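Quick start: load a record and inspect it. Here is Diguanylate cyclase:
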Amino acid sequence: LPHSEFGNATITSLYDKVERIYGYSRVNRFPLVIAAGLSKRDALADWRTDAGLFAAGGLSLLVILLAMGMVLLRQIKHSMQTEAELMRTR
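Running the structure step on this input writes:
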């Protein structure tokens, strides 16, 4: 607090061994500091859920794109074979 009027810190509690993110702010008009803490696990729960959903969605899109690429390559190969057969029959 001597260096800044507000800030945050991540501290592991000595009592319950839970890692918490604390935020603090000094109240200018009074000799008072307000602090609040939230466990890191709870703070990041929504982010982890969203990250998992985005990863699953991205992986699904990647699989779809790979499948479409394989179909396209197969069609190109078939087209080239058909063209070669037509050239031989002339």
